[in-house]
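Cont'd.
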Amino acid sequence: MDHNIHEYYETAIAVAKEAGEVVKDGFYKEKKVDIKTSFADLVTETDQAVEQLIMSRFSSKFPTHKFIGEETVAGGKKCEFTDDPTWIVDPIDGTMNFVHGIPHVSISIALAINKEIVVGIVHCPILDTMYTSMKGQGAMCNGKKISVSKISDLSQSVVIIEGGNARSGNEAKTKSNNHLKIIQSSHGIRAYGSAAIDMCLVARGQGEAYIEYGIHIWDIAAGILIVQEAGGVVVDPKGGPVDLVSRRVLCASSKTIAGQISAVVEHIDLERD
Ligand code: IPD
């Protein structure tokens, strides 16, 4: 089947803009917050409303396409990542920021065909910033081409990390040990609270790498293409190509930096999406 990737790309941008208005509206209002898997894993009415809106726009325009959405999966639907054209959506990436009134929130929309991401959009409505990418066409921020940093050694890098939302067991402890090891090998660490934004910052050269264990396919799908199209690398932190459902990701401005980070961290195996 022939695919009009350009049409998918333009539609995704229009849908992200529309969804951005709903996120903006919710951001300045009192929020109704519910707990999901732990007290640090939250959902609001806005997350659910935005996902419904995005899903309805794509299903009416592209009725044969499949859909993986964070809140639909949280509601009990299986995460089925197949070769079919599939929209992968996080309606609010950075829900904790949203709840606390921190502006680093994003809407992440990706389209995968044959398990390859061909469109990636990360819209940050409060920051008024939109990152867009189409396979083979480069990555843009608000319409201007972006590229990764030229720094190519970990000792001169800023590495973006996250605490994530696991609070029990060894996962949190291993992550914090890893963060210490990264601090000791780099210029420093940063954490912005949205995996999609973290990846876009690497794509635009504001930080040389981002690593996280515990994320899901909807947090990283759009960011993967944006980093790759900006000239960066996205890999499995344990080595080899990135696996979208493995719950871990490492992206960097160069293969060298990715390899240096991979060598200092202790790896964590998590249940797949
Ligand atoms: C979360 C954010 C956060 C990351 C978590 C994600 P959500 O996504 O991306 O930065 O550390 O692992 O779950 O829940 O706000 O969509």
